[in-house]
Fold this protein.
Amino acid sequence: MNSHKGITSKPGLLMAAVSLSLLVACNKAPESPVAAVTAPAASTEAAKAAPEATLASYTAEQFYATKSYMGNKINHNGQSLLVASDETGVFNLYRVSLDGSSWQQLTKSTTDAMMPVDWFPQDDRVLYTADQGGNELHHLYVLAPDGTVTDITPGEKLKAMFLDWHGNDAFWVASNERDPKFFDLYKYDAKTYQRTLVYQNNDGLTVDAVSDDGRYLALSKERTNADNNLYIIDLQSKEQKPQHITPHEGNITFAIHGFSRDSKTLIYGSDQNSEFSQAQLYDITSNKSSLYQQADWDISFIDFSKDNKFKVVGVNADASTKIQILDQNTGQELKLPPLPVGDLRGINFSDDSQYLSFYVNADNSPSNLYVWKVGDAQAKRLTQALDSAIDEKNLVMSEVVRYASFDGLQVPALLYRPQQAKDTAKVPALIWIHGGPGGQSRTGYNPTIQHLVNQGYAVLAVNNRGSSGYGKTFYHLDDLKHGEDDLQDIVFGKKYLQSLNWVASDRIGVMGGSYGGYLTMAAMAFTDEFKVGINIFGVTNWLRTLESIPPWWESFRESLYAELGDPAKDAERLKRISPLFHGDKVKKPVLVVQGANDPRVLQVESDEMVAAIKKNGVPVEYVLFPDEGHGFVKKANRITAQQAYLSFLQKHL
């Protein structure tokens, strides 16, 4: 499928949940145009009937012997897939036959992750992207069939991103080389790679989508984290004046899904008339909007196959993404073949819609790649992601639970119960906090969690107030209350765990990455509730973090300040909620893990936090990776981090 996904979607400041690193850690295909669909119920019954396996304990090396895969675009003649795999320890590109019998390695990087973008429309050249050591300054590269590599976005300290194809002869690229704060739009010739500046972004807008005919550009503008606006520019107009298409009063959030294939309408999400984002259809000629599709949860995305035969709708339903694939000619839903229990991710149709490639992912099974000839009785599985030493029956499925917080708010969470847990054999427990603010813990394979659960630790993945996916009221409950009300949701998550008769109530810790790392340190500094804390690249000094956000987030600055606070105006509060200034209050052991190249949470944040805890005479361990950024994409580093988590917990919890 050709994605019309925006190139600079709201970062949520630190949201590791949408970063490459956490997608790798969770072994998920990227949340691309089409993310997931629940497998048929028949396969669920088959899973229930399967015999129980003898419980075995597995090492971090065994969990990370699992292969992670990214991408699955089908080439122009429907013969090959473009896939990235980390089986060498670093993500590299592979050309994979549709039957899985041939895997040809295309790149041989030993340092930086090579991530696939797409095949060229009429030949087997490959577009891919890579940064340098996790610094998030991605360039776009073309890999020719003879192995020649061309950086088509050369330069220093720039970030470039592929947006979409324009027919077979050109493609769109966004780059911040002219002004680090904003992305301009360029049109590239697909043969010569010569480019033309199409839109110079002097308005601080976010470039989201270009219509198939190349005439219209859709953009967005953040005002606050609760309010934004959408615009369309006619690229054939000399003035190129942004036309405001979402006039409104009050706080309303809009999100662009993409243009229709005939380029006559724009589909966008809006929470104007609902707690959740519903799909609207904007007619460009009449300048009018109408309801296009609605659901009981957020509609996450709507996309179309290249030939426009199929429409795919994704809904974020209680921490899982449910999708519907509709045949637009008949109006009937496409019936999928029998599949294992789990979600489908990264759905891609071939150009003629004869083939469908996708990943199947579940809590107890990492993403495996499938190809299905539409209409056949069976789909072909191409990979074995889980290491053969691990029996997935020894891994656990999460349960969606809810508990009351300090003010009666029902907080959703995913509960992982170790198979060792019994009323007579109580287990220690951890609260897992997602990134953000504004992220969401979701169902799906997470080796970090599964390894710890396999070792006998219960995990409660909390979606505290401020998490996405539960309506706009819930999402905004933590605005300007970070480290306060959302922290209490974490504390009451502990109380929920203590109510379970198979949890050791005096052995409960807390851990998280990015914003979850911040809340972990806040829990250790501002409460005496948790026996240990594991802070994975978490903010500890909000003043410095908000003053040093990457320049390419400039268009979101006001939105970030509206949610978290303006360091120029709210310095007193930001200092009050920053754990670094309260290191003397940390009384229990802490593990800190950090990437030296992190552009979001600078290394100095963790350096100073560790020093403050040491000064307090409290046990603190520090793992620093010199070749990682905001998350860890190298397999060896992920193993080292995982071993550090377990060793620390065995020692202190």
About this structure: The chain has two domains: 16-43+66-381, 396-652. DSSP finds twelve helices and 35 strands in the chain.
